[in-house]
Amino acid sequence: MIDTYLLYFVAMNVKKVSFLVIVLAALAWLSGYLLSKASFVGRLGMTYVYKEYRFLKTWWKGALAVFVVWMVVLAIQAIVEKKLPKAKATIVHVIFILLALVGLYFTYSDFQHTTSHRWLKEKFHIGAYLFWLGWILISAFSIVQKKQDILPEKSITSS
Question: How many Å apart are CA 117 and CA 79, to the nearest integer?
Answer without folding.
Answer: 36
